[in-house]
C-alpha cells in the first residue's frame, strides 16, 4: 500500500487520446503512487505505466466484468486503498467502462477524485468551429433497429450542438443515416485521429461528409460534431386569432382570466396583449 496520507479513494484519471505529451504530471504521479490501476486493456495501459516508470499492479475492468468486480473494489477503497481508474484513452466513463464503479463508490459515500485531462469529446468540440455553449453528448449511436431510429428522430430536433463518437467501420452508415434524419445541409465537423500525427478536421454539411466518406472511406478514431437544429420560430397570431382562441377556451368551460393566461403562454406574448385583443374583438362585434 502507498504512503499517501489521504484516505482510500477512487481516482478517475484521464489519459492521452494519442499524444503522450498530453499526460499531465499529476496524472503520471497518480499512476505511480496508486495501490492498484484499473485498466480497460492491461496491455495498452501497461505501455503507459512503463512510460511513467510505474510498477503498480493492474486489474482489468471492462464492460464484461465491471458489474461483478464492483463489490470487491469498494471493499479495497473502504480499507484505505487508492484505486486509479483509466480507460484505453481519454476520460473514463465517457462511452468507456467505469460508470458503474464510480456510481457505486459515490453511493457508498466513498471518496471519488478526478484527475482531468484529454477527452476526444472536448477536443473535437473546440476545433469544430460550431457553437459550444450548449452541447449534447450522445456517445455512439445504437447499431440498428428501433432504438437507432428512435435516437435519430430525437436528434433531428436537438437544438444543442451534438457530439458523437463514430467507429470507422460504421462511419459510412452513421453519416448517411444522420444526413437523412437531421438533413443533409446541417453543418458538421468530422474529427479524425485528434492529437495524433495524422490529425484531420473536415468541416462541411452532413451530406458532404457522408459523400466524402462513402467515396474515399476513412480510418482512425473518429468524433463527429453537428450543429443543432434551428430554434422553432413561434407563429405570430393576429389580435383576431388571439381573441378567437380565448373564446374557444371559454366555450369549453375555462374562465376568461384562465383562458387569457393559457393563450398568452402558448403564443409567447404578455397577457395584456391577449386581454386587449379580446376587448377589441368585443367592441368590433358590438359595432356591427
Account of the protein in words:
With 288 residues, this protein is α/β, with parallel strands linked by helices. The protein has three domains: 110 residues, Tetrapyrrole methylase, N-terminal domain (Cobalt-precorrin-4 Transmethylase, domain 1, 3-Layer(aba) Sandwich), CATH 3.40.1010.10; 106 residues, Tetrapyrrole methylase, C-terminal domain (Methyltransferase, Cobalt-precorrin-4 Transmethylase, Domain 2); 48 residues, no CATH class. It has eleven helices and ten strands. The strands form two sheets. The protein has a five-stranded parallel sheet with strand order 3-2-4-1-5, with helices on both faces. Strands 6-7-10-8-9 form a five-stranded mixed sheet. The N and C termini lie far apart (92 Å). The mean pLDDT is 93.
